[in-house]
Design brief:
The protein is of the alpha/beta class. The protein contains 17 helices and ten strands.
Length: 416
């Protein structure tokens, strides 16, 4: 099993929008962009909403069958660990290996020495095609990378082998996530991480590095876009080199986590992919849930009333909603509208405040981020929320399709 060149991670937290998400993929194909849909949902999201991994598989299979979709599609066990993987084994064929807890933890001395010896051939000046300045690598560089990342890669290896023991070896996609760390990886660090992945015997299909800047939930990239563009190109060059040097899978590609709405870097990503003839996996988890709220608001009546109730509750439980996502949100509570102000909004005002359109003066990124992480409130409503989505599915579905196609797929894969 291999992941196609370009793929899109599509979170559907409440399992109601799969058909409308797939419609965006189909329209993209008609316009000339072939993109593999990947439905992803994490253990934490399942626990909050009260769903099971099998529910995601059932939705994906049902909507693709109904549309006669014959291209590859996947179900991602998003950010799983050894203590959470079992529930995903039967229904998932894409596994995002989350080893963040092991980054920065010292590895055992002997494996560390063996890794340093394995990489000693890179000590000195290393020229990588596609990177202007040669990499300057010392033994200390290798030792530092081993101290920070080796144990995490070894844990990824244990997790990969556990999955392999329970599924056909060629029956799933493997993503290694090393983005949840304090500082971005340099090209040299990424090269050494890939060397460790190869040494560990992980046939990685994608790798999610830590880029510079902020990748907050559901809002635009915060940082130097020129710096990001340079890093992204360097990472593509390192991957191409590592595939040839270490025998990693030829289709290995970059994965951009929290990629939802990072509009200011979509252009640089598109240009780099074309320059290197490379693919990408972009995760847009959470975006669909916000489009559901926008659709409910635009529907007016009971839909708008429910959207306002969700904001009021999330606003009142601000700390609780934000705590699990503290590292990926920047919300100034002073810039949030009061619940009373939101209660007075029309459906159009609510939608404009929430929709990520920076040309609209009503757009409020603090409002958007709070609601992004506030899906727990809707989950607690149970059938009330699900029934509202069903009652207004035409309006909600239109927003879901338009968001994926026009704001994400088009600037990444269709614009010249």
């Amino acid at each position: 099993m291999r992941l196609p060149k370009n793929s899109l991670g599509m979170g559907d937290r409440f399992g109601c929008e799969g058909a409308f998400q797939l419609e965006a993929i189909l329209k993209a194909a008609q316009a000339g962009a072939s993109i593999a849909p990947v439905w992803n949902k994490s253990y934490r999201e399942h626990a909050i909403i009260g769903t099971r991994p099998a529910d995601v598989r059932q939705e994906a299979d049902a909507v693709t069958r109904a549309c006669g979709f014959k291209e590859p599609y996947f179900v991602d066990a998003d950010h799983i660990r050894l203590d959470t993987v079992d529930g995903f084994l039967d229904s998932s064929d894409f596994f995002t290996l989350d080893v963040a807890d092991f980054i920065g933890v010292d590895p055992p001395a002997q494996p560390c020495r063996e890794f340093v010896q394995h990489c000693e051939r890179f000590v000195g000046t290393l020229t990588i095609p596609g990177i202007e300045e040669p990499l300057q690598i010392t033994q200390e560089t290798i030792e530092n990378a081993a101290a920070k990342y080796l144990l995490a890669v070894q844990e990824a290896g244990r997790l990969y082998r556990y999955i392999r023991d329970h599924k056909p070896e060629d029956g799933f996609i493997t993503e290694v996530s090393c983005d949840e760390t304090d500082s971005p990886q340099s090209p040299t660090e990424l090269l050494l991480i890939l060397a460790a992945i190869a040494q560990e015997g992980i046939p990685a299909d994608t790798i999610a590095p830590r880029f510079s800047g902020r990748f907050n939930k559901g809002v635009d990239y915060v940082g130097d876009t020129a710096c990001f563009a340079r890093e992204f190109e360097q990472d593509l060059a390192v991957i191409a080199f590592a595939v040839a040097e270490f025998g990693l899978p030829e289709g290995l590609k970059l994965s951009v986590h929290s990629g939802s709405d990072k509009f200011s870097i979509y252009g640089p990503i598109r240009q780099a992919l074309r320059k290197f003839d490379a693919g990408v996996h972009l995760k847009t988890a959470g975006t669909t849930w916000l489009e559901e709220l926008i659709g409910l608001a635009e529907a007016g009546g009971s839909g708008l009333a429910l959207a306002k109730e969700i904001y009021r509750e999330a606003r009142g439980r601000f700390s609780e909603m934000c705590a699990p996502y503290a590292s990926v949100v920047d919300i100034d509570a002073n810039l949030l509208p009061s619940a009373e102000r939101v209660d007075c909004m029309s459906g159009g005002e609510y939608a404009a405040t929430l929709r990520h359109d920076k040309t609209n003066p009503a757009y409020n990124p603090h409002f958007r981020q709070l609601l992004h992480v506030g899906f727990k409130v809707a989950a607690e409503m149970g059938d009330r929320f699900l029934d509202a989505l069903n009652s207004h599915k035409d309006v909600v579905g239109r927003d879901v399709t338009e968001n994926l196609l026009e704001r994400h797929i088009r600037p990444l894969f269709l614009e010249e």
